[in-house]
Amino acid sequence: MPRPAFFRQWVESQWQRLGVLALSMLPLSLLFRMLVALRRWSYRLGLRSVYRAACPVIVVGNITVGGSGKTPLVIWLAHWLREQGYRPGIVSRGYGGRARNWPQQVRPDSDPGSVGDEAVVLARRTNCPVCVGPDRGAAAAALLAHTDCNVLVSDDGLQHYGLARDLEIAVINGRTRFGNGLMLPAGPLREPKSRLRQIDLVVTNGDPLPRTFAMRLRKPALVALQDEGRERDLEDLRGRRVRAIAGIANPERFFDMLRRHGLQVEAVPFPDHHPFTREELSFEDQLPLLMTEKDAVKCRRLIDYPDSWVVRVEAIPDAAFIHRLKGKLDACVTTSEPAAAIRPPDPEDC
């Protein structure tokens, strides 16, 4: 196991309990909480600029570090918006991208090394215009200047207050939830749990928490890495040994999902957004090789092994979530001034 991935897993395990490490970092956690509150107030008071798009903006994110299922929900949301008659566009950070100039327009065949792996996945799976950059407002402005989008989805943008938003959706990891309940670096929280009270729609990926909507993932399908027209059922590999690689925020979640479907997994975790090399992906045995979609956009150019498969998952939100989403979006469309404000900080955040 690569050392950075092992270290990350160890840190995340510490975030699940109030151990010595967490308690020793509590002063830093309190300082971080204060800085988060001050940063939100700076936007609220107009000390920092906010870009207000001329169309509704939906932000999808979470309040914890690590994977929660945001990307499958963003993909579902983009398809749902198109079914409702909208022309959606997506803005994202472009994590892992090494482009010299931002923002960057993203196409299905863009280089993930330049624009980030998640952005390429979003472009490939949604066929929507995608624009990425550290400044979400600048990315949104560039997207609207070059496309006819009439609604924007901001991927993992909950804490990026430089882009005003009409709807906020938070996704909670149903397994790890909020860990020990502390903020970084003592725990996994980016913002206090009280922040959820200000969010329009809170979704739990897994067993739903009280006052949240449920989301589950459809049984995964396997798509051939080098031939996307060739698919097979994951059940075909039940009981067999496979090798699985994952360079995502929570690789164990991916490996556990494969094990729940009866696969004997030889797990090879990598750090999130890992830039793979051909040598790292050369294995002596002939085990079927499975990977996430985010890894596949980088590995496709490095692997010619025919028994390589992409595990494709799809989000399925419950009907109550869809009903509430439609009602809130309809209200946004009828308002005279889209993206009119950021939500003020909760007093408990200060």
Account of the 3D structure:
The protein is α/β, with parallel strands linked by helices and 350 residues long. The chain has two domains: 43-217 and 316-341, Rossmann fold, CATH 3.40.50; 221-313. It is 31% helix and 21% strand. It is built from ten helices and 15 strands. It has helices at 3-14, 20-24, 26-44, 70-83, 112-115, 117-126, 136-146, 251-260, 293-299, 319-334, and strands spanning 57-61, 88-92, 104-106, 130-132, 151-155, 167-173, 201-205, 213-217, 221-224, 227-233, 241-246, 264-269, 289-292, 308-312, 315-317. Strands 3-4-2-5-1-6-7-8-15 form a nine-stranded mixed sheet, with helices on both faces. Helix 4 runs parallel beside helix 6 (117-126) and helix 6 (117-126) packs across helix 9. The longest helix is centred in the N-terminal third of the chain and has 19 residues, at 26-44. It is globular and about 60 Å long. The termini are far apart. The mean pLDDT is 91.
